[in-house]
Amino acid sequence: MQVDFGQEGYFNLYVNGALQEGKLYHVNSDALTIISTGQTIYKGTPIIVSVKLAWAVI
């Protein structure tokens, strides 16, 4: 998978249905890294990465 959306796209991360702040995670072509806040994410907790793309053809 190649991830390079430049200025035209972005990611949203949801943990257990709650949108996470951008400073709490990093996404690249190899991994999703969630920055530790001292809280526990339990096995089976839904984690969703939403990818948004936008472009215009004029």
Overall mean pLDDT score?
84
State the separation between the terminal residues, measured CA to CA: 29 Å
Task: Provide the low-confidence segments as ranges.
Answer: none
What's the total number of strands? 5
Strand fraction band?
A: 35-45%
How many separate domains? 1
Order of helices and strands: EEEEE
Helix share of residues?
under 10%
User: What is the helix tally?
Assistant: 0
- Basic shape: elongated
Which value, in Å, is the CA radius of gyration? 13 Å
Q: Biggest sheet, in brief?
A: 3 strands, antiparallel
For the structure shown, list the relevant keywords:
58 residues; mainly beta; elongated; 3-stranded antiparallel sheet
Give the topology, please:
Layout: E1 9-15, E2 18-19, E3 25-27, E4 32-34, E5 47-53
Antiparallel strand pairs: 1-2, 1-5, 3-4
3D structure, described in words:
With 58 residues, the protein is mainly β. It starts with 8 loop residues before the first strand and ends in a 5-residue tail after the last strand. The mean pLDDT is 84.
Write a brief caption for the model:
The chain has 58 residues and is mainly beta. The chain has strands at 9-15, 18-19, 25-27, 32-34, 47-53.
